Structures are given as C-alpha cells and as structure tokens.
Amino acid sequence: MGLNSTPSSDRVHIGFFGMRNAGKSSVVNAVTGQDLAVVSDVRGTTTDPVSKAMELLPLGPVVIIDTPGMDDEGALGELRVRKARQVLNKTDVAVLVVDAVVGMKAEDEELLSIIQDKKIPYIVVLNKADLLPERKPAGPKEIYVSAVNGENIYELKEKIAGLAVTDEPKMRIVGDLIEPSDFVVLVIPIDKAAPKGRLILPQQQTIRDILEADAVSIMIKENELQDTLANLKRKPKLVITDSQVFARVDKETPQDIWMTSFSILFARYKGNLEAAVEGAAMLDHLKDGDHILISEGCTHHRQCDDIGTVKIPRWIREYTGKELEFHFTSGVEFPEDLSSYQLIVHCGGCMLNEREMKYRVKCAQDQKIPITNYGILIAHTKGILKRSIQMFPEIAKKLK
Prior knowledge:
Radius of gyration: 24 Å
Shape: globular
Number of helices: 14
Largest sheet: 6 strands, mixed
Number of strands: 14
Mean pLDDT: 85
C-alpha cells in the first residue's frame, strides 16, 4: 500500500522517547534516512512532538514521532513532558533512546515502567555506542547503536518492524457484513463542513472496504435516497448514512434493509462500539447542572453550525430538557482526570489510531464515566439505535 493510500490513523505509530541529549533526534534521523528532527548540541532542542507519515522499510507505511526530552525542567518542561506522555497513548512501538555512556537514569526507568504498564512493545536503544571503551552484553530488549557512524541502525529498523507485527486479525469497517455483488448505498450530505472537492476520511475508507469486498457502492445525497431505492432492480444489503441525516434516512429506508451510520461502523472498527452503546444510555439519567465533555480527535475549522460544538449540545438539550454544562477538546488534548464529567461524547475517531481511541475509552471506563460517540448518541435521541446496530446481534440484544 503506497504512502498516499494509507491514512495516518491506520499506520503503525513509532514513538521515540528519552532524556535530553541522549541523541534521540539523531537516532530518528538515522532510522528515517532524512532530517525529520532538529539536531543540536544544546540540550532539549526538540520542544514539541514532531510527527511525520512516511514509508519505513521493511515495515511500510508508518508515523514517526519524535518527542521532547522527558527530563525537561521548569513549567514549560512540565508541559513538554505531558505532551510526550500523550504521545505514548497512540504509540504502537516505543523506542527508548538512552545515552550508552551515561546509562539508564531514574527518569529512563520511570518512563520504561510507564511503557510496560501500557503494554506497548518497546526497544531500548543504547546510543553513542561509538564512545564506549567497552560494552556490557545487550539485554533481550536492548540494542547498541551509533547515530554518528550508522552502527546497527539497519538492525534497529528490523527490530522495530518485528515489534510492529501482530497476528491479531484486523477488524473490517463493513467488508465482513456484505457479500460480493451486494449493493451498499452511502448517504453523504454535502454541507459547509465537507472538505471542498473530496470526501471525508471515513467515507473514503468505507468505499475502499466495499470495493475490496467485491461489492457495489452507490453514493448519493440525502434527498436522492427514495428515488435511488425505487430505481434499483434489487434492494441493497445496507444503507450507511452520515449521522446528521440519521432520522430522515431511517424513515425512508424499508425495515427489511439494514441501516446504520459511518460513526457506528467506525466505533466497531476502533473496538469501542459496545462501550459507546452502553454510554448512550446515560442520556436518560442526566440532571440539571451536569457536565458533558465533547471531544474530537481532529482539529478543523469550526463552521457556524458545527456538529461538535453546536448541533450535538443542541440535540442533547432538546432530548433531555436539562440545563447542562458543555466542555470541548480537540486533537491530542484529552483530560487525564475525567471525574468532573457525567458523560463523554466522542467523535468517530477516524483521525485517531486504534490504540489512542482504546486508551480514551479505557480512561473513561477506569473512572466509571459513560462514553459514547456522535452517531450512537444521535441514534439514541432519535429512537433508532436498536435498528442501527441490528447487524451486530450480540450488542443489540443488550439494549432494553
């Protein structure tokens, strides 16, 4: 799969961590073969996580993330360290770079403990090996390298590739629900929030998955659904809609045709559909003054009728009839302390990789805060959630 055909959310995320001046950025540049990271003799040159999507042989499409030194000092240093910890939440393979001359510091040990607690596959890179007069044997998860002369950089890339390989079967978006030659109708409103001249990522990925299943995708706007269904010579297996027109599509789609949303399919794809269905039930128990966090995984220009900051709060207020407080986050920002919220409503997470989305759901579950997503919340408020997940009977049967 080429560089342009693999979304960042589906790439292996490789995070490089370590203390200031361990040569971390030099190792990143040696591994990638390009000047991805700024290199300087001044301690703490890297001030923010730097990410780049690229091809890394022998692994393929990856996202490389270089982080600030984890022993940074002062108020600004604390902010940098917090950002580095946030990177861990979306890291599939962690590379801990240690100055081989100095050895493992207490901060290195603490960081390694966090990596192990999060069950992230890792390798400890003992950099500046060219400066060592003699070497102790490397441990099973260690490797000596020199970013200066390139020693063992090839072997490091091979080890990273080995850590990224998983035998777990990858969940399909929709391909496992359809058969070859099935018709799938995609209802795609073209509104102000739609990117000019292209489809949004979940739509692109769903169409690709339908093609790979040898099925037929039919893309229409919401005002074309009735005529399309009437003119098809056979009924489609599935109608997938943007959540914003859920109620209309439900009304116009016959009951004997499966109907769901991109948001619901992506909740399953990211491994959090069951939690999101259970979380939506909290809507029926909200009280005046409750606080709701609405979180988006991407950062985009807010429209005047933006779904996250305008429509979702409006629909929740209309459904509950309660006076509620809404808080908003976007991009990598996600609070570690969720205790002040009674409900979290997340976007579909198309721009987040599976590990980060699961981390956010687990944060909520550990603190016993219900979490749901846009599409499931909308389906619940419209009374069509059970129908929208009928193709997943194990989850549907848990609804009252």
